[in-house]
Amino acid sequence: MFKNFGYFIREAGTSLSRNRLLSIATISTIAICIFILGVALLLTLNANRFIDQLESDLEIMVFVDQELDEDETADLGDLLESTPGVQSVEFIPRDKALEGLEDKFRSEKYTLRDTVGKDNPLPDSFSVKAEQPHEVVKIAQEIEKMPGVYKVNYGKEMVERLFSVTKLVRIISMVLILLLAFAAVFLIATTIRLAVFSRRKEIYLMKLVGATDWFIRWPFFLEGIILGLVGSLIAIGLLVLAYGSLLQNIQNAIFFIPLIEDSKMLTGVYLSLLGTGAVLGVAGTWFSLNRFLDV
Amino acid sequence: MFKNFGYFIREAGTSLSRNRLLSIATISTIAICIFILGVALLLTLNANRFIDQLESDLEIMVFVDQELDEDETADLGDLLESTPGVQSVEFIPRDKALEGLEDKFRSEKYTLRDTVGKDNPLPDSFSVKAEQPHEVVKIAQEIEKMPGVYKVNYGKEMVERLFSVTKLVRIISMVLILLLAFAAVFLIATTIRLAVFSRRKEIYLMKLVGATDWFIRWPFFLEGIILGLVGSLIAIGLLVLAYGSLLQNIQNAIFFIPLIEDSKMLTGVYLSLLGTGAVLGVAGTWFSLNRFLDV
Amino acid sequence: MIVQFYNVSKTYPNGVKALNDVSFKLDQGEFVFLMGPSGAGKSTVIKLMLREEIPTRGQIFIESRSVVRMQKKEIPFFRRSMGVVFQDFKLLENKTVSENIAFAMRVVGAGNQEIRQRVPQVIKMVGLDGKNDRFPSQLSGGEQQRVGIARAIVNRPLILIADEPTGNLDIDTSMGIMELLYDINRAGTTVIMATHARELVKDSYKRVITLDQGRIISDNEAAIGDAI
Amino acid sequence: MIVQFYNVSKTYPNGVKALNDVSFKLDQGEFVFLMGPSGAGKSTVIKLMLREEIPTRGQIFIESRSVVRMQKKEIPFFRRSMGVVFQDFKLLENKTVSENIAFAMRVVGAGNQEIRQRVPQVIKMVGLDGKNDRFPSQLSGGEQQRVGIARAIVNRPLILIADEPTGNLDIDTSMGIMELLYDINRAGTTVIMATHARELVKDSYKRVITLDQGRIISDNEAAIGDAI
Ligand SMILES: Nc1ncnc2c1ncn2[C@@H]1O[C@H](COP(=O)(O)OP(=O)(O)OP(=O)(O)O)[C@@H](O)[C@H]1O
Ligand SMILES: Nc1ncnc2c1ncn2[C@@H]1O[C@H](COP(=O)(O)OP(=O)(O)OP(=O)(O)O)[C@@H](O)[C@H]1O
Ligand SMILES: [Mg+2]
Ligand SMILES: [Mg+2]
């Protein structure tokens, strides 16, 4: 192997350029598959980020029994804060709550407050956020049992719908990524197999002249790596460009969807795509070759 | 052509079975590409259906000036109904509105109504739906200017966000479908090109023996059609199975997402996938062949 | 005159001068040997006749048609007037012996009936009886060569071109093939045969065109002693 | 004894009996012609020696190793002791003349230095000077054949097997090749040559094994008149 390494490299190089159609076909197949895989990955990551945010916006409204005095209310706040799974607790005095309700009906002509007078019918409340959005229901049920809690409201139906939608989105995106990954593996393997197939006589002949399997394999492998790397680099280049322009153009328009800008994470995505390309290039070659090496 | 038709068919058949590796490679590439395209299509159609529904759920709350009497209120209702672009108008008496509000704060201990007494602070209102969800803003602005309207509420910010999300989803799904369609065309073309490439000597030789281009093309075309049809039929079979089990299993769990069951529409999708497969099979063959026919 | 080469030169794209100012004429019904050392240009002459290659200079007429100026769509029909035995056989690897021969008949539009009749005939002529359903890879070198011969003669072409048709055949089989070619020639077909086999040429008293380094160095009807 | 065939029979998967109970022995340094009509089984003998095919019955020993029982991983090393000229050349189409020959040297682990020296040597020996950088498709039939010969001899193999090495060569070039083979044989290499060319065998007074329909019908050191 090491003795011949220089030869293997040169061999891979000339073979790549002499079998140009095969090289181009393999590179473009790899590039397209990796590109689509990358698009799907970025899409999924961003969608997940978005639904994470939707979920983490969920809050439990805890209305306080109007019979509680200020100290007791504060105690309830402490109790809420110390409940396991609770991330944050915000106190909303009844006046604030009325103001919020008013907003909905505000007009220049008169205010809800005027109608209600000093007799604000709303109770004090706490807005509670869970560490794990999925624990909202469980936590709400726990809180309901606490003394001094008049009522708990967490938009049961809405939350359930949201969770079933986000669950669906997560499942679908997982399935899609798996499906695309499987398809990419298969399509790349098929292309390489066809490329190797059209060189089967060459392989047969090398065996007849006394070449060992590994002597034949090495240049093919190097070709596989090179094709895999070049293909996925092209795909990654396109991804970087496309995602970059997306970040620039869409970010402002739809500010509330937080596109992933974290360059560490993106780099991770890109590197794993690159690795996938190279591995597929080699693995595809390995399996395709073995079939024709048995002479 | 017609004289030789039987021969061309037999020829295509034997060639398919003798070049088994090439046939299998082409069929599975077509099947995978068409399958993924189909998954993406169904997903997009359902997503669009879902966001259509989200959008059509939008309503404009029109609060009536408390100074209006019953007749005047009814007139306003008529006016709203006759406004162009309005689909439906529903009258919500102030008592109902209070009940709705009460729900939010209901507990066994006491009711909002008790607190407020007879003095319900809420106005009568109309719930207005637009024919075209995208006209909600325009219609709301028009309604705002009508006499007797105390306030119009359509969740401005929420609606705008919803529209930008749905617009984004629509654009992304369009782009994805186009991308996948392009990739499918390219990958299938590449596979066929490789398959034809490994038979280039055969083609060369046929030309040397005096075969016309069309005499060589016909069996290849028939092969292309057969491979395209078989490949896409496999894909469609898988899609039917997968989508069918999805309908059965998920429909109930997530009842509020209306999966498309319209068999006419589904048939349309499947038929167009079948057509795509056959066309790609032939077109791919056409372009790949021409390169080697020039002898 | 059925074949005419006028001052034909052929330089391959890589600069190799394969033919240099070659001129000759063949009459209908002639039998001509093309001889000369390896690399002399024999196969190039044949490739030019088939329009597999185009001459760099000069003109070639076959049946009074200019091979050089011929339109693309005429080429297949033009090629059908010739039956060719290629030096490297050029058999369709995915077709059996019968199918290889039948293919040449289908190309010229022969009917199924005719094909079923004629194919076994020529297979018998070249001594491949019973090997109809073999693929080329299942034949010996000489058997493959004879499939090529059968394919070349099956359509009873106007011109039969054979490039080293006995290179892989023993002397007895070769003699048999020569008899076949003579028969075909007697029936009116013009035959051009490139060969190295002196013993086949020697006693034939046919015309011999000798090439060397792309030039014709002799062209006479002579016993082999004079020709080489 | 370097090559031994013991009652070897070979039936191809499609049922064709190519060899039938063939036995012979070759001593180190012998020169043997393998003759017989087309389809007699000559190439099959060679394929069996190379372990390209496995005998249906019988045993083959080369350098006292059983070819049949050999392990898979030994095969490449075993093949390197032989240099083979294939009837259909089997050149690497994507490699130039030099590269084709150099490949055979790389396979046995030759260094760059050695390759640079030896390749032009053998190219010259077979008379292909100046064609080093041509691809096989840019060579005449006889030139391709000589590349095959050059590749077979480049490693100075223990056994040289040549299947019809002069089928596409004119008599002068053939004589040259024969001289080359005799030289190699004199240097100690065992040479087995399948051929139809009677005139090459005639005056050699070498051993001739004649096959017919898969059987050895004669095995003697004789002038051609007796052998065929
Ligand atoms: N495609 C090609 N490109 C470049 N050179 C070529 C090509 N084909 C043939 N040649 C060269 O042209 C010359 C004549 O070749 P040609 O095949 O006509 O010889 P030939 O007389 O048929 O020889 P042989 O008896 O060995 O078959 C040779 O030197 C050969 O190397
Ligand atoms: N792969 C194969 N499958 C089936 N039959 C085969 C195969 N290879 C050769 N044969 C048959 O075996 C017999 C011997 O073939 P072989 O190639 O050994 O002949 P040969 O003596 O080399 O002939 P030639 O001089 O024509 O090359 C022939 O009848 C041939 O048809
Ligand atoms: Mg030639
Ligand atoms: Mg043979």
Describe this structure in words.
The complex is a heterotetramer, with two copies of chain A (295 residues) and two copies of chain C (228 residues). Chain A has ten helices and four strands, in the order ααβαβααβαβαααα. Chain A folds into two domains: 2-54 and 162-293, no CATH class; 59-153, Alpha-Beta Plaits. Chain A is of the alpha+beta class and 295 residues long. Chain A is elongated, with a radius of gyration of 31 Å. In chain A, 72% of the residues lie in helices and 8% in strands. Chain A has a four-stranded antiparallel β-sheet with strand order 2-3-1-4. With 228 residues, chain C is of the alpha/beta class. Chain C is built from eight helices and ten strands. Chain C has helices spanning 42-49, 75-79, 97-107, 112-125, 141-153, 171-186, 198-202, 224-227, and strands at residues 3-11, 17-26, 31-35, 57-62, 65-66, 82-85, 159-163, 190-194, 207-212, 215-221. In chain C, the strands form two sheets. Chain C has a six-stranded mixed β-sheet with strand order 6-7-8-3-9-10, with helices on both faces. In chain C, strands 2-1-4-5 form a four-stranded antiparallel β-sheet, covered by helices on one side. In chain C, helix 3 crosses helix 4 (112-125), helix 3 (97-107) packs parallel to helix 5 and helix 4 (112-125) crosses helix 5 (141-153). Residues 224-228 of chain C have low confidence and may be disordered. Chains A and B meet through helix 2, helix 5, strand 4 and helix 7 of A and helix 2, helix 5, strand 4 and helix 7 of B. One adenosine-5'-triphosphate sits between chains C (12, 14, 16, 18, 36, 38-44, 87) and D (137-143, 168).
